[in-house]
UniProtKB/TrEMBL annotation:
<dbReference type="Pfam" id="PF00635">
    <property type="entry name" value="Motile_Sperm"/>
</dbReference>
<keyword id="KW-0963">Cytoplasm</keyword>
<dbReference type="GO" id="GO:0016020">
    <property type="term" value="C:membrane"/>
</dbReference>
<keyword id="KW-1133">Transmembrane helix</keyword>
<comment type="similarity">
    <text>Belongs to the VAMP-associated protein (VAP) (TC 9.B.17) family.</text>
</comment>
<dbReference type="InterPro" id="IPR016763">
    <property type="entry name" value="VAP"/>
</dbReference>
<dbReference type="InterPro" id="IPR008962">
    <property type="entry name" value="PapD-like_sf"/>
</dbReference>
<comment type="function">
    <text>Central component in molecular interactions underlying sperm crawling. Forms an extensive filament system that extends from sperm villipoda, along the leading edge of the pseudopod.</text>
</comment>
<keyword id="KW-0472">Membrane</keyword>
<feature type="domain" description="MSP">
    <location>
        <begin position="7"/>
        <end position="128"/>
    </location>
</feature>
<dbReference type="InterPro" id="IPR000535">
    <property type="entry name" value="MSP_dom"/>
</dbReference>
<protein>
    <recommendedName>
        <fullName>Major sperm protein</fullName>
    </recommendedName>
</protein>
<keyword id="KW-0812">Transmembrane</keyword>
<dbReference type="InterPro" id="IPR013783">
    <property type="entry name" value="Ig-like_fold"/>
</dbReference>
<keyword id="KW-0206">Cytoskeleton</keyword>
<feature type="coiled-coil region">
    <location>
        <begin position="180"/>
        <end position="214"/>
    </location>
</feature>
<feature type="region of interest" description="Disordered">
    <location>
        <begin position="136"/>
        <end position="173"/>
    </location>
</feature>
Length: 249
């Protein structure tokens, strides 16, 4: 049996367009107009509920009236995420005339409505990159296929965990700056330690030369001078290790 023709006028009527950057919330508006003389129930479904928040996602449009739907695309970590998902991102607007005898709550109406009386329209999704380049590659001419998912009263997907908002680009930039600052501080600290070791090494070498000269003149090398020599050799070794570590950092 052929479905009845959609009574509402959709604007836009073919596709919902979202323009990046997609690391932030991106909004698109959909206007539903009812040119008929009867009230019309509507609800919005999508094939990718984790990515969107829709408000209002259902309701009643009075005769000769209209309503605006806000569709909010939630942030993603990378535009490539949407590139791989775009072929299945579609929306469906289902509608049906309100009964003449009574005005039912929206949820109750959709539970009891005759499926043969339900009208629907499908919209594909287009992701436009910043400055508008490359968006022609984001169009999908295939017919929309299910499954479509409904939203709850808050506009979020039913039976789905809310999508976690990734860190903003500002937060990532702050982390990078902090890491760079820490790197600079560490390098400066290593440079200071290197200079101190060099000074101590030069002083010990000078003292060693004097002691060696005195020992040669006196013919005797005292025990404390031997210990001092060991200390000097240890300091030289420490300097070499410090220089090697400094080059590796």
């Amino acid at each position: 049996m052929t479905k009845p023709q959609q009574v509402l006028v959709l604007d836009p009527n073919n596709e919902l367009s979202f323009k990046g950057p997609f690391t932030e919330y991106v909004n698109a508006n959909l206007t539903l107009s009812n040119p008929s003389r009867k009230d019309v129930y509507f609800k919005v479904k999508t094939t990718a509920p984790k990515f969107y928040c829709v408000r209002p996602n259902s309701g009643v449009i009075k005769a000769n009236d209209k309503t605006q739907i806000n569709v909010m695309l939630q942030p993603v970590e990378s535009p490539e995420t949407l590139e791989s998902e775009r072929s299945r991102h579609k929306f469906m607007i289902q509608t049906a005339f309100a009964p003449d005898d009574e005005q039912l709550p929206v949820d109750q109406f959709w539970k009891n409505v005759d499926p043969t009386l339900v009208m629907d329209s499908k919209l594909r999704v287009v992701f436009q990159r910043p400055f508008g380049f490359g968006d022609e590659n984001n169009r999908d001419e295939t017919n929309a296929t299910g499954p479509f998912f409904s939203f709850n009263k808050t506009g979020e997907p039913k039976n789905e965990q809310p999508t976690q908002t990734p860190k903003s680009t500002e937060a990532n930039s702050g982390d990078i700056q902090l890491a760079l600052q820490r790197e600079v501080e560490l390098r400066m600290m290593y440079q200071d330690e290197k200079k101190n070791l060099e000074k101590e090494n030069y002083a010990l070498i000078d003292k060693l030369e004097k002691l060696t000269h005195n020992a040669a003149a006196g013919g005797v090398l005292q025990q404390d001078n031997v210990q001092l020599l060991h200390a000097i050799l240890f300091a030289v070794l420490a300097l070499m290790v410090g220089l090697i570590v400094g080059k590796l950092m």
